[in-house]
Structures are given as C-alpha cells and as structure tokens.
Amino acid sequence: MKRDMSLIREILLSIEENDEVLPVEGFSSEVIESHVKLLIEALLIERKSFGVHSFVTVTKLTWTGHEFLDSIREEQVWNTIKSEFREAGMSTIIKVGKDLAEGFAKKKVEAILGS
Q: Which CATH number goes with the domain that contains 17?
C-alpha cells in the first residue's frame, strides 16, 4: 500500500473535528486503518488498545499532530507538499510543511506591513 497524503490530511482533520476517525469517501476501512497506523508511528496521533482483541481507538492528536495539521491547513502549503514532496518521508513532509507555512506567513506579514 502506498501512503496517500490526502487521506492522511483527511484523517487528521477528522480527528481534530470529531475526536475520532470517520469514514472517508473513496477509501476502504482497511486503507484508513493502515494510514491511522502510519500516523501513530509518526507520533501525530495517540491511541489506546482495549480488551483481549486489542481494539484500537484513536484518542487525540498529539502536539506534533496539531502543529503539522496547522501547517498543512493552508491550501498553498498543502498543494506544494502534494505536488513536490509526495514521495518524501513523513519526517521530511512535517518539516517542509512547517517551513512552508512559516514562509507563507512571513510573506503575508510583509504584505500587511508594506515591506
């Protein structure tokens, strides 16, 4: 299975909004679950296991998860990541998202201040 960054973003937005992972149109529950596991491995979300069968429930975004989601919320940042960094590792994408968001914010501040 290839990682789908659009699905990653949808899952993070779902957790932020609903405190759970909701179904995403066009993706099977197995694919969504695999991406949730990737987000856990990347330390972007937390989970708890319950019972003998280790039923997994996502509990929340981590601090890093919130920071990453904030950085990719801006469409310009998100579109750049999707087009230019789709094959990059998650740690690279997190760093690039933060750097791009800071760069775009700096340009906005300069435009406001007339610099």
A: 1.10.10
Q: Which structural domain, as residue segments, surrounds residue 97?
A: 5-113
> What's the pLDDT at 52?
58
Query: What's the number of domains the chain is made of?
Result: 1
Cα separation, 99 vs 104, whole angstroms: 9
| Alpha carbon 97 to chain centroid, angstroms | 10
For residue 50, what pLDDT is reported? 62
Q: Please give the average per-residue pLDDT across 63-88, as a whole number.
A: 88
Residue 86 tokens, joined: 């789709």
> Rounded to a whole number, what is the largest CA-CA distance in the chain?
61
Q: Please, what is the angle between helix 75-84 and helix 90-113, to 10°? A: 140
Mention every residue, 6+ apart, whose C-beta is less than 8 A from residue 19: 60
